[in-house]
Structure formats: C-alpha cells, structure tokens
Write a structure and sequence with these properties.
The protein is built from 9 helices and 11 strands. By secondary structure, it is α+β, with helices and mostly antiparallel strands. It folds into 2 domains: about 180 residues, 2-Layer Sandwich (D-amino Acid Aminotransferase, Chain A, domain 1), CATH 3.30.470.20; about 80 residues, no CATH class.
Amino acid sequence: MRKLSVSIGRVLLWPFPDSVYLRLGYRIFFGTWPDYRHPRSFNEHIHEYMLRCRDPMLRIPADKIESRHYIAARVGADVLVPLLGVWNRPEDVPLSELPRPLVLKPTAASGLVLIVRAEDELDEDEVRDRMRCWLRRCYSHVNREWCYRGVPRRLMAETLLSDDHGGLPPDYKAYVIGGKVRFLQVDRGRFDQHTRNVYDPQWNPLPARWTLQKHELDPRPACLSRMIELAETLAEPFEFLRVDYYVIGEQLYIGELTNYPGAGFERFIPSEYAWEIGKFWTGRPRSKDR
C-alpha cells in the first residue's frame, strides 16, 4: 500500500519543479510542511541538501562503478564485492556464461537488483527486457535526486554474498553527518520480511524505529570500529554520506555509497527523533529560500 501511494504521488507531482515537488511530497508523506530555509529534522536536511548542493563529488556515490574506484583509492580494494562485469547494453551481458550466484543491477539507480542463484532457470529475453527498463529510468527525475543527473547508465554484475546458511547477509549502513558516524542501521529480510534496527556508534539501540518494524537485537559486529573508521574516511569530502556494508565471516565488504537515503522519505518513529538526528547536521552554508 505504501509503495502504491508513493507511486501515485510521484505521478501527481511530476509536473512541478524540484523544490515544489519535494515540499508537496514532504507534506503528503510526513503531514507537515518542511522548512528548507532553516532545516531542523534529518529529513528536512536531506531535502535541503538535495536542492542546494551541486558538488560534482556527489556523482561518485551515484555511480556504482565510480564509487568502486573511489573506495579502492581511498581505503583499499580488499573491501569491494567481487565484480563480474560492466556493460553498456543488455545485449552485451553474457547471462549464460556468468558465474553464479550473482547479482545484476544498474549502475545509476537505487533498489533495483536481480538475484540469480545457481539453480535458477532464466528467461534471458525477460531478463534483458528488465535491464532495458532499468536503463530507461533516470533517477534524477524519480525523486529529484540531482546527483544522478548526467551519470552514465550501465549494467553490472557482482558475486552474490551469502551467510553461513546460504541466505542473504544482513545489510549494515553507517550514517556519517558532519564527518562522524551518528547512527547505524541493520536491515534483515530485505526481499522477504524486511525489518530494521538502528543503533548509536557504541551499538546501543536507539529509542526509535526507522520506517520499518524492528527485529531481535543484533550482536555487535566484531568489525564495528573498522566500519566506523572506513565510513568516516570515505565521507571526509562530503557533507553527508551513508556507507553500506556486508560482513561475511571475518571479511568486511562495502556494498555502496548513498547521498540521499530514501530521497529523504524515510520516517523516524516517533517523529521527534528526526529532530534529534538533525542536530548533528551543522556547519553547512546557509541556503537561499527554497
């Protein structure tokens, strides 16, 4: 139901300029009007950042291939998920030859993936049709995410990472605001019963939910300090950055980098907690009235 209402809202708001689109979207989603001139909540800050900042560096997280180069240069290639290939056209992807299990995804988008396991039977025509749809979709228009504007749209495949039981590992995500990790989230069951926990940098559970229902408490990762160190190193040139991880045994992998989580439409419950997180966003240039 939420996805349907979001899709309808996007269609209705499509003709409006970015600032109006985001204001109306904020009002519909959160039930209040945002103040982008004097942002206070985390969501207001994300939207204000989307409207104001035109630093070319933002295109690095938006391009999954460029972000791999950036990660390798800044913290080392050992944390990258193995890459199987990059292609410009669906016709060029050698689906029958790629080693499985694997993940197919577009290089300039968010949330679009196709998991291919060893036992899966693929309809290659159907898969290529899906990839064509991916390449037609411009994410700078979907939620007015400027960072995707002008980024080449390609296709990529990576090795599918699995936990000890052959399932998908949890997603760890570190939020760096003003140079420091301010909170982390753990997502489980991303393609099934999606749940999420949020923690402070000392791994204490936050007294709030972040859009989704919670699951049982997650054990503190042995590599938590390295997660935080890498995230803060990668985020040094950025006002804000989210760094996504997987942990497989003792190996830490970085999945991707994100400029605008959920395009600013994730929800803290209770809503007042968005103001607590927003307090960390300081030192930004004062923007003009939006």
